[in-house]
Specification:
Blueprint lengths: L1 H18 L5 E2 L6 E8 L2 H13 L5 E4 L17 H9 L3 E4 L12 H18 L7 E3 L7 H10 L2 E3 L9 E2 L7 E2 L7 H13 L3 E6 L13 H13 L3 E2 L2 H8 L2
Parallel strand pairs: 2-3, 2-9, 2-10, 3-4, 5-6, 8-9
Antiparallel strand pairs: 1-7
Helix pairs in contact: 2-7, 4-5, 6-7
Length: 251
């Protein structure tokens, strides 16, 4: 019974976060934008994935849960270690925040949320003091209406996994994103999402996890990542990490 109650509570909290804004913001980007983001993060995202982005002159955003770094907890991939995070940062990629222990925000009260954010920030600053933690992604994609105001005070944006292209007036604490995941999107759907971004002068955010020839159910192949980058380049849609895109959006 408790498990059913917690599941129902999480879904309600998530839906409230989707539909009720703490803040509305009008995007003011002059040209369309696309961002490539990776959650958790698998070692293959930090190595293979980052390398593919760099080959196209793009830098991504990698959302890190400090408690997972250097672990073998996931059955799907090897996690990044500290040198991987340092290398990403020094090569110009953005390091973003998950919760430290990868707990869903809808399961946290205000004090626990503060503790998770502070612990993750302290951890990442200990890795490299020059890392700036400016943007957040909801672990497992579950938003929390109760925590949105708190997250607004700590981060410039919060990214979910509800599909869609961001354009016009958006909710910075619940930005929409498209899966760059082989099991959930094909090349035609990528092309359509980029066409919508171009027509609406929007901001398309992709999210994924591992990048491997045989990806996990939550990851993408190098071929799919390359296709998305090439398709964006054909349309002259700028590839920007989250921090860079927000600077353009607020210009």
């Amino acid at each position: 019974m408790n498990a059913l109650w917690f599941a129902a509570k999480a879904k309600i909290n998530h839906r409230l976060a989707m539909h009720f804004r703490v803040e509305s913001f009008r995007l003011r980007n002059e040209t369309p934008m696309v961002s490539f983001t990776f959650d958790d993060i698998p070692k293959s995202a930090a190595t293979t994935g980052a390398g593919i982005l760099e080959d196209h002159g793009v830098r991504g955003t990698f959302y890190v849960s400090g408690g997972q770094v250097g672990t073998t907890g996931s059955p799907h991939w090897a996690a990044v270690d500290v040198p991987d995070i340092v290398a990403l940062h020094r090569r110009g990629h953005e390091i973003g925040c998950h919760t430290f222990s990868h707990r869903r925000t809808c399961d946290l009260d205000a004090a626990s949320m503060t503790a998770e954010i502070e612990q993750n920030s302290r951890y990442l600053r200990s890795v490299d003091p020059s890392i700036k933690i400016e943007n957040f992604a909801y672990p497992f994609g579950y938003g929390s209406f109760g925590r949105k105001r708190q997250l607004k005070a700590a981060f410039q944006s919060c990214r979910g996994i509800v599909p869609g292209v961001n354009s016009g007036t958006v909710d910075p604490q619940f930005l929409r994103a498209m899966p760059l995941i082989d099991r959930h999107i094909d090349r035609d759907a990528i092309e359509r999402a980029l066409d919508e971004t171009l027509v609406n002068n929007g901001w398309l955010i992709f999210y994924s996890h591992d990048v491997a020839e045989t990806p996990s159910p939550y990851g993408c192949s190098p071929a799919l990542l390359n296709h998305a980058l090439e398709a964006a380049s054909r349309r002259k849609i700028r590839g920007l990490n989250m921090a860079e895109a927000l600077l353009c959006a607020r210009a």
